[in-house]
Design a protein that fits this description.
The structure is a single chain. By secondary structure, this protein is an alpha/beta fold. The chain folds into two domains: 16-144, Rossmann fold, CATH 3.40.50.2300; 155-402, Rossmann fold, CATH 3.40.50. The protein has helices spanning 33-43, 59-66, 84-95, 113-121, 134-144, 168-182, 199-202, 211-215, 223-229, 258-265, 281-289, 301-317, 341-348, 360-369, 373-376, 381-393, 408-419; strands at 25-30, 52-57, 75-79, 103-108, 126-129, 155-161, 187-191, 231-232, 237-240, 270-275, 292-297, 325-331, 352-357. The strands form two sheets. Strands 8-9-7-10-6-11-12-13 form an eight-stranded mixed β-sheet, with helices on both faces. Strands 2-1-3-4-5 form a five-stranded parallel β-sheet, sandwiched between helices. It is elongated. The protein starts with 24 loop residues before the first strand and ends with a helix.
Length: 420
């Protein structure tokens, strides 16, 4: 922790800087309902998913009584609404019952560097100045385990289609390729469509093993196994491919991909998840747990309905994160009635991150050759937009709203054809 008088408000910092909290037990002893509510809300955040949190009232006095004859958790949070001398005495008494390795976080209202130094000398791990919000609390707990201050916290970006066949996988693969090439970040693509995944085809790879080998053998999953399963696409891009076979069904429980994702997050700075268009317990968990979510849709009514449902659900499931991004793909297809991009965005209450025009020749050539769009036509607007998507989800660029002029030539050609 930096000294209180020099520390900026944590709430003003980017939530994306906060790494997930490891599997710990945490017990909080509050004196106000406000702090109890903040910690309860924090326990429901995706970053605290693995932590077992219990909130009680009574402050330091209640903590002392609770641990006289009971083991202490990994983290104890104490709300201090007492004079300095009384607080020091209570913490000194509490220290007599704390097990080795237990960390104590104090939440107080006094912004005093002398008090902060005194508490640290007593063995307190962190001192927070109330009032705090949900992200303040999560950031402090995450920081206890070495996550705070890392320059490159692993980022996980999930791409999902609002409807099958809208090109979500293609957008995901091209964005990941751009992240690895343009931003020079080591990146892994994980194809979670185990039965019909196309990542291997898109990168012209045919690995003998893939992600299914890890999911079906959780007892053997470790860093070495994941390394063996990865197929190298470029110097900075690796692929965890789908088996794309129908020899078995792929019915998984909610936590099926947790271990694989955890290992990747601890070893790779960027992970792109290609999530199939399916609504299962594990896909919902993967999407809710991602740092960024990109919903890819085509401009028709079914896509609009599904995109709105997905975005609304993920907003509610990830209240402390940026809302999901929307990418409209295949816009301007000849003779197809379409919902205007402005109307689509208004209905789903999300401005498109990109509006990608329909180009059968460009996308078809790339798919059939096992190449990326920029490899086929580097100077195209589509390649530029796909690169922009990669930069935005990695927080390396501001979001640039698509200009209406990008679609003007397409729409003009359609109008002329209809008139003739």
């Amino acid at each position: 922790m930096t000294e209180p008088e020099n520390a900026p408000r944590n709430a003003q910092r980017d939530a994306a800087e906060i790494a997930p909290v490891p599997r710990i037990s945490l017990q909080a002893f509050c004196e106000t309902s406000d702090l109890a509510a903040v910690i309860a809300d924090a326990s429901a955040d995706r970053r605290m998913d693995k932590a077992h949190v219990k909130v009680q009232m009574g402050g330091a006095a209640a903590a002392i009584e609770a641990y006289r004859n009971a083991p202490t958790p990994n983290v104890i949070v104490i709300e201090a609404d007492r004079e300095r001398g009384e607080l020091r005495e209570q913490l000194d008494e509490l220290s007599q019952f704390c097990d080795a390795g237990t960390r104590v976080v104090v939440v107080g209202r006094t912004n005093d560097i002398a008090l902060y130094r005194e508490l640290i000398a007593l063995g307190v791990s962190e001192y927070l100045i109330a009032p705090i919000d949900v992200l303040d609390f999560i950031r402090a707990i995450s920081g206890l385990y070495g996550s705070e201050g890392r320059e490159n916290i692993a980022r996980m970006v999930a791409f999902v289609g609002a409807k099958g066949g809208v090109g979500a996988s293609c957008i995901a693969h091209n964005a990941a390729w751009s992240i690895a090439r343009d931003l020079e970040i080591q990146t892994v693509i994980a194809d979670l469509d185990l039965a019909f995944g196309t990542a291997g085809l898109d990168f012209n790879q045919d690995p003998p093993q893939g992600i299914a080998d890890a999911v079906y053998a959780p007892d053997r999953v470790d860093t070495n196994l994941i390394d063996r399963l990865l197929s190298k696409c470029t110097d900075r891009l690796s692929l965890l491919a789908a088996s794309a076979t129908l020899e078995r069904t792929y019915d998984f429980d909610e936590n099926a991909f947790d271990l694989v994702i955890d290992i990747m997050r601890s070893n790779v700075p960027a992970i792109v998840l290609d999530v199939p268009h399916a609504w299962t317990s594990w896909s919902r968990r993967v999407l809710a747990g991602a740092d960024e979510v990109v919903v890819v849709a085509s401009p028709d009514l079914a896509n609009l309905r599904n995109a709105k449902s997905l975005i609304d659900h993920l907003r509610a499931a990830r209240p402390n994160d940026q809302k999901p991004h929307l990418v409209l793909n295949g816009v301007g297809m000849l003779k197809r009635p379409e919902i205007d991009a402005v109307d689509f965005a208004k209905a789903v209450e999300t401005d498109p991150l990109a509006i990608i025009p329909f180009d059968a020749k460009l996308f078809g050539t790339a798919a059939n050759n096992g190449q990326m769009i920029a490899e086929v036509e580097a100077a195209s607007k589509t390649a530029e937009m796909l690169a922009d998507i990669g930069r935005v989800v990695m927080r390396r660029a501001e979001i640039k709203r698509p200009k209406k002029t990008l679609l003007a030539p397409i729409m003009q050609r359609l109008v002329k054809r209809k008139a003739s």
